[in-house]
Write a structure and sequence with these properties.
The chain is built from 19 helices and 14 strands. The protein has an eight-stranded parallel sheet with strand order 12-6-4-3-2-1-14-13. The protein has 531 residues and is an alpha/beta fold. The protein is globular.
């Protein structure tokens, strides 16, 4: 229904009440409806799932159509990100939000800051999804409210051309609501627990759930040591639990992103059940680090595997965990990814220890031999030292090509002394094009930075504290914050408007007419930012 159609249909509804609703403005109702386009989180999940599916098809047609997101730990941060994207690029196309379990643990738990080990309250995840979408919907209401004010001004001035231009903009308004890829960690318990949490996350608006193959009660951050994986059947039960949650709630094209931590995980808590040679359980167990035994040397509590007719004992650690053979991580990642795609996963996530395109591509090539359209979500992680990694990659490439690298110390390439060098310039160019290059070569559909706004908040606060509490005093805030907000057109410089004061004034006028006591009058200091 268009804006004008909504006004007409609401007018008919008002008229049908025999004059008792004559105090209601049909156009005001149409405006409020447009400002609140999504009635529930499920409306959002269905809408954004369709966006992701279209984007995935576009990527399959041309890998230049990759997508991106930044991790946000508060609804306001997500809102400001999308407002900025619309301001700078005119469209939110192929730009999403990422909800990081790391940032939920570090910033949103009632326990206070926690490591990324699934110790935070599971309900804090759907709560953040709901909060993010509350702020994105408010961004819609704010932007449309400005358009409605401009429309009224054009009508008051009798400017029909401006009126038609603004009406066209209203009819074609692009929402700030975009897909959220949400981290469900290792499922926070068994498959039933995963299903229950998945439902809450989808009901809050998540169209894409990212789940990893670690043990729930031993879960570690993907960039920490001590990661423990589970056999495939355990993990796939949770994948199916997520799919059941989507289907139960009517989000039939919901997205499941299966993450494998096997590249950096050398441990397992369980020996997989194998029913036939070569099945998933047998393949999983084939990577265990074992030693041959005979009955005379068997010990109480030993687990015995038959490997090629030999009796083998998996090496058990003091922690009661079993270890995989060194150097098997890539093979296990490939097996994990193929098994996930065979069992309904939509996208893959391979957690790596460094951002190296050929390392990723070497695994993706093998996966695509079984699933030609396999696509990745990739963590452009702040846990990587991007500067050092790429300078070392250039150093190694130059050395292999026979170029003279004697002027560089590979171990110290992070040093500022190298910032102006040709090597540093080439490394920065590789970083700049990393996402496009990796999407073309390594099948990466979606690039995200997990916790960038954690770092930007820390950096900007440090800079402000240094200036404000130092000799610059108030100038430290005015010069480096407020003046930049004004000159760069940052919407939040008008913080009263951003918090909803103008929307509230509109509602007051709808409800009370000329008797409304509004906040946006001549004495509102926000008017100082009009220029």
């Amino acid at each position: 229904m268009t804006y004008q159609q909504s006004i007409a249909s609401t007018g008919e509804l008002i008229a049908s009440h025999g004059g008792t609703w004559d105090g209601i403005s049909a156009e005001a109702v149409a405006r409020m409806r447009l400002q609140n386009r999504f009635q529930t989180g499920l409306d959002i999940a269905r809408y954004t799932a369709a966006i992701m599916r279209r984007d995935m098809a576009a990527y399959d047609a041309d890998p230049a159509n990759y997508t991106q997101s930044l991790g946000c730990w508060h609804g306001f941060i997500g809102q400001q990100k999308m407002i900025s994207i619309k301001k700078h690029f005119g469209s939110t196309e192929r730009r999403y939000l990422y909800l990081s379990g790391w940032m939920v643990a570090a910033l949103r738990s009632e326990f206070g800051p926690l490591p990324d080990q699934s110790m935070h309250e599971k309900t804090s995840v759907p709560s953040l999804i709901e909060e993010i979408y509350t702020f994105l919907r408010q961004a819609d209401a704010r932007e449309l409210g400005g358009m409605f004010r401009d429309l009224d001004a054009a009508r008051d001035a009798g400017d029909e051309l401006a009126e038609q231009r603004i009406l066209h903009a209203i009819e074609n308004h692009q929402t700030h609501v975009v897909p959220v890829i949400a981290d469900i960690d290792a499922g926070f318990g068994n498959a039933e627990a995963t299903y229950l949490l998945a439902k809450k996350m989808i009901e809050a608006g998540a169209c894409a759930l990212q789940i990893e193959n670690q043990v729930s009660d031993e879960k570690q951050c993907g960039h920490q040591d001590g990661k423990v994986t589970v056999p495939h059947e355990d993990f796939l039960a949770k994948v199916r639990a997520c799919r059941y949650a989507f289907l139960e709630l009517g989000v039939e094209d919901g997205i499941i992103v299966t993450r494998t931590d096997s590249l950096g995980a050398g441990l397992t808590k369980q020996i997989a059940v194998s029913k036939a040679p070569g099945d998933l359980g047998d393949q999983y167990n084939s990577f265990l680090d074992c030693e041959e035994i005979d009955p005379a040397t068997a010990q109480n509590g030993d687990v015995i595997l038959n490997r090629g007719g030999k009796m083998m004992r998996p090496k058990r650690l003091a922690s009661n965990l079993f270890q995989f053979r060194e150097g098997t991580g890539a093979d296990r990642c490939v097996m994990d990814c193929i098994a996930s795609l065979d069992n309904g996963a939509d996208l893959l996530w391979i957690e790596t220890e460094k951002p190296h395109i050929e390392q990723i591509a070497s695994m993706v090539d093998r996966i695509r031999a079984a699933h030609p359209t396999a696509k990745l979500v990739y963590n452009n992680s702040p846990s990587f030292n991007w500067t050092l990694n790429f300078r070392q990659q250039v150093f190694d490439a130059w050395a292999e090509a026979g170029r003279d690298v004697s002027a560089y110390d590979r171990a110290k390439l992070m040093s500022v002394d190298y910032d102006g060098t040709e090597l540093a310039a080439e490394a920065d160019e590789r970083i700049r094009t990393f996402q496009a290059d990796a999407s073309r070569r390594a099948g990466i559909f979606h690039h995200l930075i997990t916790l960038p706004t954690y770092h930007t908040a820390a950096l900007s606060t440090d800079n402000l504290a240094r200036e404000y509490f130092g000799e610059q005093g108030m100038l430290g805030y005015v010069k480096n914050v407020q003046r930049q907000e004004i000159r760069q057109g940052i919407a939040a410089v008008k913080h009263q408007n951003m918090s909803g004061s103008d929307i509230g004034d509109d509602h007051k006028e709808y409800f009370a007419g000329e008797a409304a006591l509004k906040a946006g009058g001549a004495q509102n200091t926000m008017n100082q930012f009009a220029a």
